[in-house]
Write a structure and sequence with these properties.
It is built from 20 helices and 9 strands. It is α/β, with parallel strands linked by helices. The two termini are about 30 Å apart. The structure holds iron/sulfur cluster. Iron/sulfur cluster (SF4) binds next to α3.
């Protein structure tokens, strides 16, 4: 079986039984598989506008060249809507389909957009997702300079990425704000972005009932933030990957666990009083995986919901690319340390824990298959050929014309070749190629599409140099 065939079906359609099982988990109206392209726009740091964080193959527009109205009413978003109405995932939604088929229902990105379903659909967006800047005070090991200015300066030693958002963008948002029911803000560190406070000021004036969901590393909580919390309705998600100080410091480089846990208690009280949601987001990593049962236990005791991110990058932190023997050991450990649940929150957390085990089990099966391919024994040229063939096979199966497929394949191949030229180190490039070949195409293709060769170079160099230095 070829690698890409493993991750995709012959048609980009979900089966009835997969949909039934998935829908059984969903609490809201299930009229649509995904509400994202019908209700919202995602604004990314370089000005790109997308239907969601995952469909990165189809850019709706680029600020400031395109307006929000251009993106919302354009041909691209209409095509995505049309396809999804037919349960056709071949227009950039392949990763959602892949997770659905794997039975990783909590990892189906569309599930994360169920909460934006409005009472009545109108012709205005009811939700916006903002990721307008990468200003961040942390240098977490699983992050990159794309999401942290501190990493960009101190680890990648490279000029900061330009960010196009400005006061004019904030003003462009004004007519949409009265219609919004949900907004989400992330970074970088969300509370470091001055534009967000300006947007919250307009929300306070025009639509104070609008829910503001913020993702934060939990490190900043000053009087100004507290005053915004008091006047608006904030859901808070905090990224905490350990409650053991040594692990915390090794993962959240530059962070202070005690400070974050104190702030967490403040946010917890706030959410309880404001009747909003608090969530702890955990990245299961090589560095904290054996700590996960303790971490869950800690938040169970504090009656707080947790959720797990699916970490595919960087390779020295992610679990999916571990040798199968190591993955097997981790799965056994997590099963042996699976606690029973009594409260509602414990049950929810346990369901997420089980989904994590399910995900690891799927990755374990895949690793066993990959290991028979002995990719590390192949030359760079052979690996490039395998990669190109996988791309061809992947695109031939999507719901796009053969001309578009050809262009996409050419663009991806070209980007990989440019990255190789920029890296100028065959050993690292070879590791990077193996990593790319082993990633599920449905995950990889949108990531390649949304990154320049320079961004790929920065990512690969950090990861694979680090792996070599530490013998990972
Ligand atoms: S990728 Fe998933 S979440 Fe995004 S629009 Fe498609 S189905 Fe919805």
């Amino acid at each position: 079986m070829s690698i890409s065939r493993f991750f995709r079906s012959s048609k980009c359609q979900a089966s009835k039984s997969d949909l039934l099982k998935y829908n059984a988990l969903r609490s809201k109206d299930k009229t649509r598989f995904c509400y994202a392209p019908f209700q919202q726009i995602t604004f990314m740091p370089s000005g790109e506008m997308y239907a969601c964080y995952y469909n990165l193959r189809n850019k709706l527009g680029q600020y400031p060249h395109d307006s929000i109205s251009d993106a919302w009413n354009g041909k691209t978003i209409k095509e995505i809507r049309k396809c999804l109405d037919k349960h056709d995932f071949g227009n950039g939604c392949e990763e959602c389909l892949a997770q659905l088929k794997l039975g990783n229902y909590y990892s189906v990105a569309a599930w994360h957009y169920d909460y934006i379903k409005p009472e009545h659909e109108t012709d205005m967006p009811t939700a916006f997702q903002f990721q307008l800047s990468n200003a961040c005070n942390y240098e977490c090991i699983m992050c990159s300079g794309e999401l942290s200015t501190s990493i960009r300066s101190n680890r990648e030693h490279a000029p900061l990425y330009g960010r196009p958002y400005d006061d004019k963008f904030v003003e462009q948002l004004r007519p949409y704000i009265p219609h919004l029911q949900n907004t989400s803000f992330t970074g970088g560190e969300t509370f470091l972005n001055p534009l967000y406070y300006k947007i919250w000021d307009i929300i306070a004036e025009e639509n104070p009932q609008c829910i503001i969901s913020v993702s934060t590393n939990g490190s900043i909580l000053d009087e100004r933030i507290k005053s915004y919390l008091e006047k608006l309705k904030f859901n808070i998600t905090i990224s905490i990957n350990a409650v053991d100080n040594d692990i915390y410091k090794s993962v959240h480089v530059g962070g202070n666990m005690e400070n974050v846990l104190n702030n967490y208690l403040y946010f917890k009280e706030y959410c309880k009083k404001a009747n909003t949601q608090l969530m702890i987001k955990i990245c299961p990593l090589r560095q904290n995986i054996y700590h996960i049962p303790n971490l869950m236990q800690y938040f169970n005791l504090h009656d707080t919901c947790i959720a797990f991110n699916k970490v595919m990058y960087p390779p020295h932190c992610s679990l999916w690319n571990l040798p199968s023997a190591e993955l097997g050991k981790i799965i056994n450990f997590l099963k042996q340390n699976r606690k029973t649940a009594e409260t509602e929150i414990e049950k929810l957390n346990l369901a997420r824990y089980d989904t994590l085990i399910n995900q690891l089990t799927k990755w374990h099966q895949r690793r066993i298959e990959h290991e028979t391919l002995k990719l590390s024994e192949k030359s760079c040229d052979e690996l490039i050929k395998i990669f190109e063939n996988n791309l061809k096979e992947y695109f031939s199966n999507l719901n796009i014309s053969s001309t578009d497929a050809k262009t996409e394949i050419q663009e991806n191949n070209e980007k990989i070749r440019q990255t190789a030229t920029l890296m100028n180190d065959d050993r690292i490039f070879k590791d990077a190629l193996i990593y790319l070949i082993e990633l599920p195409m449905s995950f990889l293709v949108p990531q390649l599409k949304s990154r320049s060769a320079e961004m790929l170079r920065s990512r690969f160099e950090y990861s694979f140099k680090y792996c070599k230095q530490t013998n990972l």
